[in-house]
Amino acid sequence: MISSVKEVSDTLAIFENNKISDTVINNKNLEEFKREVVTVGDLYSFNRLAIHYEENKNYKELYEYALIMADKYNKGDGCSQVFICIVAMNNKNLYRDILDFAKIDEKAKSDALKYLEKGVRLNDINSASMLQEIYRNGIGVKKDIKKADELKKKIEEM
Length: 158
Known about the structure:
Shape: globular
Helix content: 55-70%
Largest sheet: 3 strands, antiparallel
């Protein structure tokens, strides 16, 4: 049930159960966000696209912009988002949580892990947290407490 609707700049923000849902982004803003990601690696625009595409379960489209942020602009946020997109695209377009990583094939796992590792090198706390959880719990990989502890230490230093 929608409790209130509020206009925020050019984006319609819908508040449901105290959670903001901004799946309604007008085409002008959507194109502007895309352009800002592609041309300058703008993090705000990327985050807006990520929210929009994740809420609409359009991981294929999000993947394109996450790769740009990760590879062209070396942004850790892009790396963790590439991981999520790879998992979702190889899991019936679903990403519920880190446990979905165990459900994908080995090639996809390898590709996804490469982006988390790159995110860690870029000091992205999201990438480090996900990778630490994967190794600590053996999610889709052999459990490696030593690697998990090293990642935990790195996270504490971030």
